[in-house]
Specification:
heterodimer, A: mainly alpha, 9 helices, B: alpha+beta, Phosphorylase Kinase, domain 1
Chain lengths: 271, 381
């Protein structure tokens, strides 16, 4: 079942067009930075962006900080929203369920496919960003070497490891979005409505994070810890928000995948 | 019918799972703290003595004072008017590290002996430098002053036994914390009370809340994580990354500069408050504990923009002689001697105290090109 869903994902032209579109923003920013040489002032702009002019090897992280807040979750919401509602709209859901597999397994397979999509998107963005960062932006050996936020030096293996951990964390952060969109996908009949439902949750979360009056809710908002991967570049690594971010995503997955399971396994698919 | 029942069971299972999680979270958060029968004066002494105890942790402070955005003082506005996230490692008063966590970097202070190195990530890698300063006798507040142990020691300095009382215990950063309430007795005080919560085991303050007239603190700072084991020396020391040069700087901030280069001599008493040993050169520090006021002379370049910003503060009082703004319990006054120079008087005192202080300060003074003697005594009223 999982293999079938993965094949569908990887053979879909829409998958690769979406990833290419996500990838376009960091590439455009790199070109602009290289042409103008003007980065954001220190302390402003997305994480790592003012540092990449001196150290291009950090550009995958800057690219990640650009796509994680909006582009990547919207793409994940659209892909996950399509999962059940898309099959329903196309009239293929009833035929899919004729196969001797449980609906729970189908849901899990759909979630795995969405996670693989997020993984692909993150890897493509990071790989492209590394290439354009090294080719177009600063070379680390020319100036300061790669430093942590705390002012300690990072060796190349350390930088690679922490970058990979950042990619894994960013991918993990998309689990919650995928679970919400999947739940929405079992609720409504059109993929657009499912995607919009998940995107509405993301927008609400982002908005509430800016509101001091909602501070009691902040630790539970899905977007609260998305950019915590930057804490991997402090020394010692600051694990607090990263661990909370992982825990929160797992909680969202448990609740919304559970709700999707409760709803979908008894859903009437004959309409 | 069976499908409906099955759906109901599944929804019930999901809801029950969520309810169990919420219940566990509520129980953990509301776990009662163990109190101790130590009296308030003893606890205040223990807090002062805890300066040598090592610890490390993560601190979140929240200030509500909207200070005017005058460039030479803007760092104070950030500290007292916004949320600040700090990681700190404390081996003792002579070896500590405080990192202010920012979304895209850090600004860290590393203290060793009598020197403090400031590392700012984005500026540092762009310019390839870190800055090192000697410890000045007086300075503007810095991130280290927002740490609960440091803030508590400042507000409890010189406190009298009849000004403190016990207020029970609570859980903070996963530890039992004993409560201590300070109600300042000086008539010049604008702070109504300060609540200090000290770790039951080590007496290191875990939280400080400063209250003005309202029910909510105007400044609060608390550990979200606390560890009482001694941090490694290598964690505290600053070993610059490859390509970064540590540059020695002469002057830390405007208060440091004024204390060393202005000729003015602050009076022995100001608005009924005695000058303290924390004074240095032209900068006078008066009062005790949380009821403190600082007076320093400014030339037109320093006083002018500050005066303009103060005048924009809601409720500011502007006369030819002085501009006064009151931000909660914090008062700020800048005098005008007619040609733009003046004295800045600021502190946690009543507006009447500020005005009285401003009237008593002599208008004539001048900057020198060489450092004034670093004296903390002498001078004429």
């Amino acid at each position: 079942m999982i293999r079938v869903e993965l094949r569908k994902l990887l053979c879909s032209r829409r998958t690769w067009v979406t990833i290419a579109l996500i990838d376009a923003l960091p590439v455009l920013v790199a070109v602009l930075l290289a042409v103008t040489g003007v980065g954001p002032r220190p302390g402003t702009g997305p994480a790592f962006l003012s540092a990449v002019l001196t150290d291009g090897t950090l550009y995958p992280l800057a690219a990640l900080a650009m796509v994680v807040p909006l582009f990547l979750p919207v793409a994940v919401a659209v892909t996950a929203g399509e999962a059940v509602a898309g099959e329903g709209q196309a009239g293929t859901l009833r035929y899919v369920l004729i196969r001797p597999v449980g609906r729970t397994r189908l849901l899990v397979a759909k979630l795995v496919a969405v996670v693989v999509f997020a993984l692909l998107a993150v890897v493509v963005v990071a790989a492209t960003a590394y290439v354009v960062g090294v080719l177009l932006l600063g070379q680390q050996d020319v100036t300061t070497g790669t430093a942590t936020f705390s002012g300690t030096s990072l060796t190349t293996p350390e930088l690679v490891l922490r970058t990979l951990m950042s990619l894994a964390y960013a991918m993990l952060c998309m689990l919650g979005v995928a679970a919400i969109a999947l739940f929405c996908s079992t609720l409504v009949d059109t993929p657009l409505a499912a995607a919009l439902g998940a995107i509405a949750v993301l927008i609400a979360s982002t908005l509430l994070l800016t509101l001091d009056a909602a501070s009691a809710l902040h630790p539970w908002l899905i977007t609260r810890y998305w950019l915590a991967f930057t804490d991997l570049f402090r020394d010692p690594i600051f694990w607090r928000d990263i661990l909370r971010g992982i825990g929160l995503q797992l909680l969202y997955v448990a609740v919304f995948l559970g709700a999707a399971w409760a709803n979908f396994t008894t859903k009437d698919v004959t309409r | 019918m069976g499908g409906v029942r099955s759906a109901g069971r599944r929804w019930l299972a999901v809801t029950l799972g969520l309810a169990v999680f919420v219940a566990v979270a509520v129980v953990v958060r509301s776990w009662p703290a163990a109190d101790d029968d130590v009296d308030a004066a003893t606890l205040a002494d223990r807090v002062q003595d805890s300066v040598d105890r090592p610890w490390s942790g993560y601190v979140v402070s929240q200030g509500t004072l909207a200070l005017p955005d005058a460039d030479r003082f803007s760092s104070v506005g950030d500290l007292l008017g916004e949320q600040t996230r700090l990681r700190a490692w404390w081996r003792g008063p002579d070896a500590w590290r405080v990192d202010e966590l920012r979304p895209a970097g850090e600004v860290g202070l590393r203290h060793e002996g009598a020197l403090t190195t400031e590392w700012s990530y984005e500026t540092g890698i762009a310019e390839g430098t870190a800055e090192r300063y000697r410890d000045p006798d007086v300075r503007l507040p810095r991130t280290v002053d927002l740490l609960p142990p440091e803030l508590a020691r400042h507000v409890l300095a010189g406190v009298r036994d009849d000004e403190v009382s016990r207020i029970g215990a609570r859980r903070l950063a996963g530890r039992d914390a004993l409560g201590l309430r300070l109600v300042p007795s000086l008539p010049q005080a604008s702070v109504r009370r300060v609540d200090v919560w000290a770790d039951a085991e080590t007496s290191v303050p875990l939280s400080v809340e400063v209250y003005g007239d309202g029910d909510d603190p105007v400044l609060s700072t608390a550990f979200a994580e606390f560890d009482d084991t001694e941090p490694a020396a290598s964690t505290v020391a600053f070993d610059p990354p490859r390509g970064v040069v540590v540059e020695d700087e002469d002057v830390l901030d405007i208060v440091d500069a004024v204390s060393r280069f202005a000729e003015a001599v602050p009076p022995r008493r100001l608005a009924g408050l005695p000058r303290t040993r924390d004074s240095a050169g032209a900068v006078g520090v008066y009062g005790r504990g949380v009821t403190r006021v600082m007076a320093l002379p400014l030339d037109e370049r320093g006083a002018g923009p500050l005066r303009e910003q103060l005048a924009l503060t809601p409720g500011a009082s502007v006369t030819p002689e002085r501009t006064v703004a009151v931000l909660g319990p914090l008062g700020v006054l800048v005098t005008d001697d007619g040609d733009g120079d003046g004295w800045l008087v600021t502190g946690l005192v009543t507006p009447e105290t500020l005005v009285r202080a401003g009237r008593s300060l002599t208008p004539s003074w001048a900057f020198t090109t060489t450092a004034a003697p670093m004296t903390t005594t002498g001078g004429t009223p």
